[in-house]
Amino acid sequence: MRAFILGLALLGCAADPDPHGDPAQDGAPDGAWTLDQGAADAAPDAAPDAAPDAEPDAEPDAQSDAAHDGGPVPPAVEVIALGAHPLDTPIDLTLAEPADGLLLQARGPAGAVLGVVDAFGPQGRLIGPTGAEPGFRAAFNPGVAVALLPSGGGPALPAGDYRFRVAALGAAAVDTVAVEAWVRRGPAQAVRVNAWLTPALGLAVDDPAVELFAAALAGRLGAFGLPDAQVRVGLLAEGAPAQARMDGLRRDFGGLAELAAARPAQAPPGLELYLVEDIVDGANRINGFAGGLPTPVGHADRPAAVVAVRAVLLPDFPAAVADFAQHELGHALGLFHTTEPFGDAHDPLEDTAECPQACDADGDGVLLARECGAQGMGAPPCQGASDNVMFWTLGGQRAVTASQRRVVGAHPLTALP
Ligand SMILES: [Ca+2]
Ligand SMILES: [Ca+2]
Predict the structure, then answer these.
(1) What is the pLDDT of residues 187-239, one digit of tens each?
(2) Cα of 332 to ligand 2 centre, how many Å?
(3) Do the strands 113-121 and 124-127 form a parallel or antiparallel pair, or are they unpaired?
(4) What pTM did the predictor assign?
(5) Is the terminal CB of the chain with fewer CB neighbours within 10 Å at N or C?
(6) Ligand number with the minimum distance to the CA of 350
C-alpha cells in the first residue's frame, strides 16, 4: 500500500492488487491505491497508541539509540530515536557521516494511515508534499509511516541536515507519532524472509513443493542483488487466518492485522511473508499485497509489515507463487510499480521503462503487459515497457535494474544476517 495514497500497488504492492495478476494472464487492476485517488474516510482510531519507545532525553529531540524491538542491530545499521512528534510538524535529523540508505519510521495509532512527506536533505527535496509527486513518490502505510531514501536509487546520502514531516490520510485521531531513523551503510548483504504457511493450505514446511517454492524465491531475490537470501518457512498455529480480507479504499486493513497477530513472537526479524488461501480487497480478489512500501523494521505486529501472497497454486506451481512473492517483496523493499495500471504514475527510477498512456491500444484506460510491449514485442515507446518484475501485472520479462538493486540494498533488512 503505499499506500493508500500513494499508490499502492496494485499488484503487488502494497496494495498491489495483483501484483502480477494471475500467472500467465494480465489481470485487471485490483487494488492499488494511488496518492491521487483518495481513499474513503476511515473511522478515526479512538485510542491512539503511539508512544515513543525510547526514554526521552533531556532535549526533547535529541538523537539517541532507540530501544527498538527488531532484534539485534547489525553493524551496518545505526538506529536513531527521534522522539514523539505531532503530525505535520518538521522533524529534524542530522547525519554525521554519509549513508547508503535511510529508513524513516513513524509509529502511530493502528487505525491511522501514515506517510512521510516533505523530506529534504542537504541536496534538496527527497519526497514531495503529498508523496505523490513524480520523482518524489512515497507511500502511506497503515499504522506506521515508512520511507526509504534515496527512493530514486543514486549515490549515497550526504552527511548533513535532513528534515521531514509525517502526515495522515483522512481524519485520523493522532496525538503524536514515535519517530526513528535507521541509517544503512555498506552494500546489501542478505535478507531473511519468514514465510508463514497458514494451516488451511494443508501444507507442511518440508513438503517438496514448499521446498521448491523456498528455493525459487531465494533465487528470485538474488535478482534484487541479494544472493544470500534466506527463506525460512514456518507453519502458523491452528486457528490462524486462512485468508486476508481488507478494504483498502476504506482504510480497513484488519485482515493484515490478523495475520500479523498470528506470527510467532520469537521469530527473528525479517520480511514477513504470509502464504494464504485468498486475499480479498474490497470487491477484488488479488494475488498479493504488501502492507508497507517499504516494510518497517521492528513493527512486525503492524499490517504494514505484512506481505500476503495467495498460495493455493503452490503445490502445483511453486515457481509461479515465488514470482508473486518476489514482486510483493520488491514493494516491501522499497520498489514502486514501474508503471501503475492506469499509466498515471511511475516509479522514481530513471533506468526503468515507463509505459505511457498512449500505449493503451484498446482504449480501456488500463495498460496491460501486452500493450506495453511484453517480451520485447511492440514498437517504441511501448516496446518492452512491461519487461520488469515491478511492472504492475504479469506478462513481461522479469528484469531488475541497477537502480532497483540500489533501492533494495538501502533497506536495513538487507543488512540482517
Ligand atoms: Ca522509471
Ligand atoms: Ca488497455
Answers:
(1) 888 899 999 999 999 999 999 999 999 999 999 999 999 988 999 999 999 99
(2) 27
(3) antiparallel
(4) 0.84
(5) C
(6) 1
Q: What is the CATH number of the domain that holds 269?
A: 3.40.390.10
C-alpha of residue 29 to centroid of ligand 1, in Å: 19
Cα–Cα distance for residue pair 325/212, rounded to 1 Å: 13
The 10s digit of each residue's pLDDT in 126-178 is 999 988 888 888 889 999 999 999 988 778 899 999 999 999 998 778 899 99
Question: 368 C-alpha vs ligand 2 centroid, how far in Å?
Answer: 6
With beta carbons less than 8 A apart as the criterion, state whether 337 and 17 touch: no
**What stretches of 88-229 adopt beta strand conformation (E)?**
91-95, 101-107, 113-121, 124-127, 140-142, 144-149, 160-168, 177-184, 192-197
Residues belonging to the chain: 417
Cα(398) to centroid(ligand 2), Å: 20
For residue 396, tell me if it sits in a domain.
Answer: no
- Angle (CA) 146 181 158, round 5°: 105
Give 354 Cα–ligand 1 centroid separation in angstroms.
5
- The count of structural domains within the chain is 1
Q: Is 302 left (phi over 0), alpha (psi -120 to 50) or beta?
A: beta
Residue 205 lies in a domain: yes
Question: By the 8 A CB rule, do 387 and 272 touch?
Answer: no
Q: Which ligand is nearest to the CA of 151?
A: 1
Query: Is the residue at 160 inside a domain?
Result: no
| 20 inside domain | no
DSSP string covering 315-338:
TT-HHHHHHHHHHHHHHHTTPPPS
- For ligand 1, the distance from its centroid to the CA atom of residue 14, given in whole angstroms, is 18
Which of 44-48, 275-279, 388-392 shows the lowest per-residue confidence on average (mean pLDDT)? 44-48
Can you give the pLDDT at residue 71?
58
- Closest ligand to residue 339's CA: 1
Three cell numbers written together for 124: 534538496
User: Domain residues for 253?
Assistant: 188-336+408-415
Contact 113, 140 (CB under 8 A): yes
